[in-house]
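[job 4471] stage=fold_predict status=RUNNING
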Amino acid sequence: MRLVIVTGLSGAGKSTALKMLEDARYFCVDNLPIQLLGKFVSLMEGAQGEDVQNAAIGIDVRSGRALDELEVELEKLSSSGQKYEILFLDAEDRVLIKRYKESRRSHPLAMSGRVDDGIRLERKKMEFLKEHADYIIDTTHLLTRELREEIGRIFVDNGKFRNMVISVLSFGFKYGIPDDADLVFDVRFLPNPYYVDELRAHTGMDEDVFRYVMDNDAAREFAAKLEDMVKFLIPNYAKEGKTSLVIAIGCTGGKHRSVTLARVLYERLIETKEYGIRLEHRDIGKDARLKK
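[job 4471] inference complete, writing structure tokens
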């Protein structure tokens, strides 16, 4: 039986991950009392062959003081020969706070205080689980379908775990530098399609614009140097435990040059298949919306 402990920060996607595992025919139990962990595993082992092949258990700070007993219970499982894997869902504090505000739910440790105080306390309580986790998925920039794909690849298709999600993000400087950017690159030195009448209304997603931007030595050399530097940085960031990296590429309006270079970098990074790669164009349609 494959046993997965699903845990992490409240609001980071634990309940969603459990639903996805349930769809993948895992027998799932959320908020199981810690003291019943061994009993549950014994029951599941006895039920194997009765449409029960794998199991997932959701554990988080709702366990209260009993959470301190989890390490002992996990050691008992290991001693009995039962293997288990720990999936830890995480996200940046600002995103967790935003999700709580949108859902209008209260944080389990915030009581009547501030959500960020509850998150800070929760991180401290969950630290030992994160340290022992087999998989850490940062959902800060993940769409629900992207989380589903990653969970399916790990727990259904038995694929290699990619311990970092890299977001390649195009943006327009006139709309501000993205707050969550780890690396920012300015491509305003390249020829601007905006000043070509037949290209102005199009974007870097259109092949005519793409060819115009890339049809010069400066663009091609920049793309090659950017690829080389990013491929050097990524494994070093991963070695230091970073699980999310946002690479922002900006031009004036975020419509032509930045979109083109973001596409180029994305295509070159995705070939490595070592990390989760996503592409986003933050400001690609803003000019059109503002003119209406």
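[job 4471] summary: The mean pLDDT is 88.
[job 4471] exit 0
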